[in-house]
């Protein structure tokens, strides 16, 4: 019986993952056709890469919130780490003649690994605790890393690298020196290498990683910890190990989104609007509205809620009112008990079953 239940559950999750992959690929093909035929406005074309960025970050946060069951309010901080570490490498290697594609791939790896490292360093002490400590610490981390980047100066000249956290004048750089990180001005001149195609590839890579994790033995252990920590601990599941695994991977995926973000802008700054508290809350909204534990829902919520304010920009007086109404409607549709019952009653599977019985 257990074997049968496990087989059915595995088939269900496999089917769900393939539907998500197919949805992403189908949207990509439709967008490419629309762009090729000129039927998509320049405004929407400018939103394509941000849609990928927020989708990737939402996937990573959903792994932490939806599957691990821990509230993180600092995922914008992990995006900031990934963005600045990758942009720093790209800027440093700009004059070396390195192949641009190879440079971007290495920058992507560096940004992802640096975000994972910070997630590991934060998770080691905090994930041993219980309650809301993780939310408080990640919130503090996001604010700290943002403020550190605003006071960090790094210059490259013939003598090497010079660091300062006070002002640019204290660096004593040579005349031919160039700023790699210029305090509040950030990193200037990052090559524009992020494209919609790369963004979709990274979304598929993120989905592949998280689906393989949650469908594995480690993923079942993570969900067991989320559902009942005491019961999981009583059967010998190492709580800290699996929580740290999920949180580190979640931070790494957020860092991947940060790399895409950094290479979509010519100037990267750590302003509050970019990597502040509001960004983390926005990602959390994507996860909650899309459904905690539903990666496909996180992508859909990220796309809809990112596009909606821009599409409604012509309705200047009512734009945010309509946005708020849509948020409330999505929340009720996803979480209200009556709405859940209605969706189950009118699902395609149930309708097909009823029609089959009627024919018989």
UniProtKB/TrEMBL annotation:
GO terms for molecular function: branched-chain amino acid transmembrane transporter activity. It holds the Pfam family BPD_transp_2. It is found in: Cell membrane. Its main location: membrane. Keywords: Cell membrane, Membrane, Transmembrane, Transmembrane helix. The chain crosses the membrane at residues 18-35, 47-69, 75-94, 101-127, 133-155, 195-214, 283-308, 320-337. It comes from the Bacteria. One of its GO terms (cellular component) is plasma membrane. The keyword Secreted does not apply. InterPro entries: ABC_transp_permease (IPR001851), LivM-like (IPR043428). It is a multi-pass membrane protein. This is Amino acid/amide ABC transporter membrane protein 2, HAAT family. It comes from Faecalicatena contorta. The lineage of its organism: Bacteria, Bacillati, Bacillota, Clostridia, Lachnospirales.
